[in-house]
Amino acid sequence: MTESPLTKAANGEVGPHVTNGLKPGRNGVLRSVHRCQQDEEEVQRSSNHGGFYNRPFLESYEETPMLVAVLTYMGYGVLTVFGYLRDFLRHWKIEKCHIAREREEQKDFVPLYQDFENFYTRNLYMRIRDNWNRPICSVPGAKMDLMERVSHDYNWTFEHTGRVVKDVINLGSYNYLGFAENTGVCADAAAEVAMTYGVGLASTRQEIGNLDKHEEMEKLVAEFLGVESAMVFGMGFATNSMNIPALSGKGCLILSDELNHASLVLGARLSCSTVRVFKHNNMQSLEKLLREAIVHGQPRTHRPWKKILIVVEGIYSMEGSIVRLPEIVALKKRYRAYLYLDEAHSIGALGRRGRGVVDYFGLDPGDVDVLMGTFTKSFGAAGGYIAGRKELIDFLRSNSHSAVYATSMSPPVVEQIITSMKCIMGEDGTTIGSDRVRQLEENTVYFRKKLREMGFIIYGNNDSPVVPMMLYMPAKIGAFGREMLKRNIGVVVVGFPATPIIESRARFCISAAHSKDMLDRALSAIGEVGDLLQLKYSRHRQPASSARPFDHLYEDIDG
Amino acid sequence: METAPAYHLILEGILILWIIRLLFSKTYKLPETYKLTEKEKEDLIEEWQPEPLVPPVSKEHPAITYDVVTGPPSHKIIINGKECVNFASFNFLGLLDNERVKEKALASLKKYGVGTCGPRGFYGTFDVHLELESRLAAFMKTEEAIIYSYGFATIASAIPAYSKRGDIIFVDEAACFSIQKGLQASRSFIKYFKHNDMEDLERLLKEQELEDQKNPRKARVTRKFIVVEGLYMNTSDVCPLPDLVKLKYKYKVRIFLEESLSFGVLGEHGKGVTEHFGVNMDDIDLISANMENAVASIGGFCCGRSFVIDHQRLSGQGYCFSASLPPMLAAAAIEALNIMEEDPDIFTVLRKKCEHVYSALQGIPSLKVVGVSFAPALHLQLERGSGSRVTDLQRLRSVVDYCLDRNVALTVARYLEKEERFLPPPRLQA
Fold this sequence. Notes:
Chain A: It is a single-pass membrane protein. Chain A: It comes from Nothobranchius furzeri (Turquoise killifish). The complex is a heterodimer. Chain A is α/β, with parallel strands linked by helices. In chain A, 37% of the residues lie in helices and 14% in strands. Chain A contains 16 helices and 17 strands. In chain A, strands 6-12-11-10-9-7-8 form a seven-stranded mixed sheet, with helices on both faces. Chain A has a three-stranded antiparallel sheet with strand order 1-2-13, with no helix packed on it. In chain A, helix 5 packs parallel to helix 13 (411-425). The longest helix of chain A is centred in the first third of the chain and has 26 residues, at 66-91. Mean pLDDT of chain A is 82; it is low at 1-48 and 546-559. By secondary structure, chain B is an alpha/beta fold. Chain B has helices spanning 6-24, 38-47, 99-112, 127-140, 151-162, 177-186, 198-214, 216-221, 241-251, 273-277, 306-309, 312-315, 317-320, 327-342, 345-361, 389-405, and strands at residues 69-70, 76-79, 82-86, 125-126, 144-148, 168-172, 189-193, 224-229, 254-258, 286-290, 300-304, 367-370, 379-382, 408-409, 411-412, 427-429. In chain B, the strands form three sheets. A seven-stranded mixed sheet of chain B has the order 5-11-10-9-8-6-7, sandwiched between helices. Chain B has a four-stranded mixed sheet with strand order 1-2-3-14, covered by helices on one side. In chain B, helix 10 links the parallel strand 9 (254-258) and strand 10. The longest helix of chain B is centred in the N-terminal third of the chain and has 19 residues, at 6-24. Chain B is extended, with a radius of gyration of 30 Å. The N and C termini of chain B lie far apart (104 Å). Chains A and B meet through strand 3, helix 4, helix 6, helix 7 and helix 8 of A and helix 2, strand 1, helix 3, strand 4 and helix 4 of B.
């Protein structure tokens, strides 16, 4: 195997995936790995761990087939070799150079970018750049209109032809409950508020940016989640990066999951606390870290920690996995740590009433110390919130960076959140909200089941509306995106560095606005492209069942 | 050949045996100071009590209860039920309730809905975003511009995208909080120079040059930046930009300019402090501003040459990992730009009014005005502080309440006391 810098860097993460059978499972709790001969590995795990769960928790992360892994590494190796060749040609001006250059007057300054930092961008990302940043010109609903772009110089520059590709099925936007719409109750209410209150606010929450609408919205959010009070911020990313530093400081410990989002990582770093990482969704790893931390105290001085904060997400958007919340709550109570739950993707998308992962497991929202979430995904608006006890929120009102220095939320966005939340709660007098929640559940189960039957490798929990489908090879990333677009379906593909290097994937986000017909069309296109590109890697083909999609959804195997 | 004497052989034999023993003996382990038994561990776990998650906040803390505004915040604003003249929002060009802006925002809402449901990379790029970026670049006469969905996050994501561990940043002491957070996230060496003091900055640069000469290899890869604001939020005065540009070429440092308060305010056409001083735009590496002040929308942008800005599209955290700006806010910003371009007289009007207010506020006993005469945001500071921040704040709050009773809205400038690096004294903001 070629030892390129890319593979060297990623080897640490990727190693376990290539060995066979005998590694401990990725999800620590209950893995009964079949120690059979070759690279067969049991797929479905049903965990009923000591009665914590009152519903089946089915996750699967099928292992990378050996041949595929080898071919993927070879693919990256070839790309790297060609990358060096291209750089060489560009340096000696044999090939035309499209890269923007430094100013003449500043040529003797220290270079702004190191050459190697951009190696990946220049040589690998550029080739398939047309799969990202696709501009759209309509509502990002279940169907959207894309602006057509062409590139005449292999993706270095793009031109808009002016034509619009209409009615592309949207499997990429985070539109779980279908509230991204420009007609209907929410849009009308937001339009009215835009005309009366205007669009901007030009002041911070603590000065005079606090409208009565903000207070109304905060009360509503608290009611929705079942907690005492809530506070709202203008940007989801900033909610994490500005409030974790307020909650934990020097002398505190943050235990964060391996695959946490960049905003959580940034918040933990800015807080100057010690940060320790536990394996993804692995409760044994977390417990071990907790015990060690309490017993040994702070490094070197051995003073006891001031507090311990466990930071996890509801649904992890790259893996499609759902956090093992009942076990974490049990651990937290035993070791007296605090829990920070980031429900960016799971609020509105999980649970019988759409109240998020706490509702999905049937737990008490008071058990989670800090409930955080965003309004971008399920509510069709923008911004984030933090909810919890009244003391917590009072503290944040006076000490959060955002309340003091950042502008408050725009009024029409606030109105959109209020209307959509009332709709989900059923307070507007219709059942639209609960219908959508149910529709999302059905769509998710149906879509996942069909993909698995077709033979693709799908990661994640059976109930999560985020569906990652493995592609592995770098060439297939670009090919999949483009082939799907030819069939009028817009998908999202992700590769390194958002995922480990050989685990590139396509990620589908199911929405309640997708009708069964749209899903069927998408599934047939995916099947077609899968055959064309040979993506059906799974070795656990399940026979196509003709039963109803959610026959055994709520099998209660408790006790 | 002589045979070796006997004692030689014996000595060598002993040495060989010693080496063999060392090779096979166990490595020396530092004795662990303690090895706890399971029971001891359980006891420690039982005994440990963490602090409460948040410290209690007293009920009289001024920031718990906010003033509630009902109705649109424009020239007149209704606070806590009273209608007042608004001297407290950053609504410099009065565009917050401009009808044209609202119409355009409404049209955009009818076309796109409210939210974008995705980051820029995954179907979150709308044609309005692209239009806004090209309009901003054209307005500022730079090659490219990039939009963020939150003003605070703009400079806080831009700085760490370029400056990494090991680089050096020279910052003014009065830099605002978002710049401080960007500096913290970048993990570089930060050197503060006294506010607007070019000699102090030159001194620091000279010191750095000496360091570089000692270690030229390291100096060749250490990037150096100067971060300044056009119109400082904390002191309301301008930075001496021509001097900074001279220093830039002399010591080979790059300049990042933060123009949140000066965009749309200074300069003949509102292009900011570069126009005000007549400095060539190309000399500044990066200009960052937020659209929440003069351009009465939400969000922020950075503009500059493509060589510099394009990098943020993959490494600006607030750009890649966050949902994009709602399209109606982008449409509102475009319309505000249209108004700014069509009618450059509003800037002269604004400046006259600023000077008028500035001269009128001079001579108030025991309150001194901090800021330059053409700054639209002024600070009123107590001439003689009582030494305790809390009493000062209470006194200022009573001034604000008095003004509210007389239907004029002011506000106490808010700072996070424990987090600011150089805490400004308590003051009012107008």
